[in-house]
Amino acid sequence: MTSGMTCPKCNSENVYHDGSLWVCPDCAHEWNPDTESGDAGGDGSEVRDANGNVLADGDSVTVIKDLKVKGSSLVVKGGTKVKGIRLVDASDGHNISCKIDGIGAMNLKSEFVKKA
């Protein structure tokens, strides 16, 4: 490909344009060069909720669907508000660390929350 574009995550030159996004088939990273142009690091450290809003440490979020707690019979109900989240870099996709009243400390995926 002669696009001159490289993946900001793995630096692969094997990328292609798909609609308004660029896609790297090697690491499955998708990005929009217009919105990430000011990001010098380009490491994809930006965490977004289910609606695409950027999340930060200390934000409050609302769970959007019922989530089963692994290894337990407990369920985090949709609509539960979680205050004071911490963003973590986890390899299993759980990028939010928080405490939920009645359940305790746990990790959540950002795709199942929305910014409150």
From TrEMBL:
Residue ranges the record marks as coiled coil? none
Tell me the ranges covered by the Protein YjdM C-terminal domain, including all copies. 47-116
Q: Where is the Protein YjdM N-terminal domain positioned along the sequence?
A: 7-32
What family does the database annotate? Belongs to the YjdM family.
What is the name listed in the Swiss-Prot or TrEMBL entry for this protein? PhnA protein
The top of its lineage is: Bacteria, Pseudomonadati, Pseudomonadota, Alphaproteobacteria, Rhodospirillales
